[in-house]
Structure prediction request, 333 residues.
Amino acid sequence: MINFIKTIFLLIICSGVLISKPAVVSNKPIVIKLATLAPEGTEYYNLLLEMGQRWQEETDGQVMLRIYPNGVVGRESDTIRKMRIGQIQASAMSSIGLADLTDKIQAFTIPMIYKDYDDVERVKSVMFDDISDGLSESGFKLLFLVDIGWVYWFSVNEIAVPEDLRNAKIYTTAGDYVTVELFKRFGFNAIPVSETDILTGLQTGMINSMQTVPILSLSSGWFALMPNMLDLKWAVFIGAVIVDERVWSKIRPEHQKAMMEIAQEIGKKYQENGRATDAKAIEMMKEYGMKVKTPTDEELKIWEDFKKEIMPDVIDAYVPEEVYNKVTSAIDE
Prediction:
């Protein structure tokens, strides 16, 4: 009996030791794999590289960023799918991909509503929290949200008024059925094509016009096949960096704070670079023969009437009415 009691006593002591023993904390760094369509070597890629290097320094090597450029992960919709299953943990993404995660981002895709960057800044200030909350509901942490250029119409044949688009074969992102349906309401013919097949689509004549930013048209060589640009701000191009919250939550709070501050600084550089390269890209393409059509006052009036005509359809199919009202109120202040 005495031996039995001793045995129980020893088991209790040992159990206490085991229970009170601190958990072993792994020193293995957190590796964040980030996907982007930005080509390696571009300023956008270099800024992401800088962000990763600074993250590693500020976290004493506890967080490392591994970048997958050139769209090697696939389209932005592919990236989202791979983030959801844990293959990719972060992305530098445009409003095209972000729209799959929150409809609040459509605040920046409303046609012809923005006149200048002051309008854009006012809308960002009132929409940032809504967009951040929407992304959080989808499981993603928003690190920065910036504008990186104006969206213009580029085309094989000159576009002067909306009627010129009715016979055009307009590129739209593969899988973006909402835009296809919306353009049908406009009387436009939208052709869904994968981002990686745009050049082939232009070469074969499958598409002959699209909305994009000048730097993309230049860097991708699309302007050589679409040598006409309409100097009318159709929308603003938005870029953001998002991280899977499952990974973000594993990072120490003090490291999160430092990483967020670094990301915000990189975001400002992203925006400055995008705005500066917009005009430079246009001038460079003009040197290579691209023609820029500046609308006359009469043509601008036609576009303004067209905007009023299509806006009910835009609100019905594309932009939530509360978002539209918030945008217009911010611009009108």
Q: What stands out?
A: The two ends are 87 Å apart (CA to CA). The beta strands are 30-36, 63-68, 90-94, 140-155, 169-173, 189-193, 209-212, 228-244, 291-293. The chain has one domain: 30-332. The longest strand covers residues 228-244.
